[in-house]
């Protein structure tokens, strides 16, 4: 009879222990979920930024000012290793078609990862890719104009000196003062870098 009071006290202690255990478990789960989300954001940010750099390298690849002999089809090259006169259009078009495949591959990867990033961080970031898309379009248009003149050599050349300089600046990577297109690409890449770098840095 004298120990009957122990039973309710024991029940209270067990209840408090259960509450404490549940609280610790909840905090542990919450911490784990935050760590998991942080790792997920880190990996996604890293993947997106890596794909942006691939696009940047693709721009350099397409805009390389020199065309190597091995880039031309072998049947379009003469004995000196240069493109035959009657194959100037077909040979040059072949080179840029092959180079552009790297651009298409890099951009396809970026578009897919950018969509994942929008799901993760929201549609307010959807405009960050627009400038890269625009620059890709400008480069493609410049190449098409260039090839058009090869295909139609007898057409009047409507481009004046300034327009020609602009086309050269877009088409060819040089890194010099006359290369006005590369800084635009670098600025478009920096938009992604500024956005994603904090997610990568905070995990270190």
Describe the structure.
The protein is mostly helical and 204 residues long. It has one domain (45-201). 71% of the residues lie in helices and 0% in strands. The protein contains 5 helices and no strands. The protein has helices at residues 6-62, 88-121, 130-151, 161-171, 182-201.
Q: How would you summarize what this structure contains?
A:
This protein is 71% helix and 0% strand. By secondary structure, the chain is mainly alpha-helical.
Strand and helix layout:
Elements: H1 6-62, H2 88-121, H3 130-151, H4 161-171, H5 182-201
Helix pairs in contact: 1-2, 1-5, 2-3, 3-4
C-alpha termini separation: 63 Å
> What is the residue-mean pLDDT, rounded to a whole number?
82
User: What string gives the helices and strands in order?
Assistant: HHHHH
Q: Whole-number radius of gyration?
A: 30 Å
Work out the number of β strands: 0
Q: Tell the overall outline.
A: elongated
Biggest sheet descriptor? none
Domain count: the total is 1
Tally of separate helices:
5
Beta-strand content: under 5%
Helix content class: over 70%
């Amino acid at each position: 009879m004298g120990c009957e009071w122990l039973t309710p006290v024991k029940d209270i202690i067990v209840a408090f222990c259960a509450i404490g255990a549940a609280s610790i478990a909840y905090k542990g789960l919450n911490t784990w979920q935050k760590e998991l989300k942080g790792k997920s954001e880190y990996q996604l940010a890293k993947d997106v930024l890596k794909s942006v750099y691939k696009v940047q390298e693709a721009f350099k690849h397409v805009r390389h000012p020199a065309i190597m002999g091995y880039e031309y089809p072998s049947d379009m090259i003469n004995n000196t290793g240069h493109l035959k006169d009657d194959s100037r259009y077909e040979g040059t078009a072949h080179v840029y078609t092959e180079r552009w495949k790297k651009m298409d591959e890099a951009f396809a990867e970026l578009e897919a990862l950018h969509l994942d990033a929008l799901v993760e961080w929201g549609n307010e970031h959807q405009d960050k890719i627009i400038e890269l898309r625009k620059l890709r379009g400008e480069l493609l248009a410049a190449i098409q104009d260039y090839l058009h003149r090869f295909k139609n050599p007898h057409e009047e050349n409507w481009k004046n000196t300034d327009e020609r300089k602009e086309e050269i600046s877009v088409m060819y990577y040089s890194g010099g003062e006359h290369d006005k297109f590369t800084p635009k690409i670098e600025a478009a890449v920096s938009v992604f870098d500024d956005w994603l770098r904090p997610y990568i840095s905070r995990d270190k």
